[in-house]
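ok so i was messing around last nite and threw this chain in just to see what happens. nothing serious, just curious
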Amino acid sequence: MNHRATSAVPWLEPLAASLRRDGAAVLVVVAATQGSAPRDAGTAMVVSTSACHGTIGGGHLEFEATRIARDAVANRGDSGWIVRFPLAARLGQCCGGVVTLAFLALDADASGWIDCASTCARTGAPFVVVAPVERGAGVLLVTPDDTRGSL
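result:
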């Protein structure tokens, strides 16, 4: 995800707050859509044991994504993974398209790059979050002047 100050980063503060409060959270991002879908790619929500912030469209898709994310938080599961949801066939949703969700499970160790991303968002500096989809992978935050985290 590439962000600039002119575009809101609505998941950043809720993610930081969830990690402070609960010690773990999952960032769920609409990675891609095909056909009719409740939200566009890039839409995100934060899920922790005690709260959800944001929405990826509601309905069965959001219910299933929340269930998967909370299971990962409870079991300290994989750091990143992708799930494809055919909305009508798998979830019975009327929009009938396909949504691919990216899940990124994080713990309190992520606070370093999240703090840097928050500073970038506040000051208008561009930044990119790089998160490979594999077990045990880290997260890398890249700005024009700095790199935080590790893959």
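not much to say yet. The CA atoms of residues 91 and 101 lie 14 Å apart.
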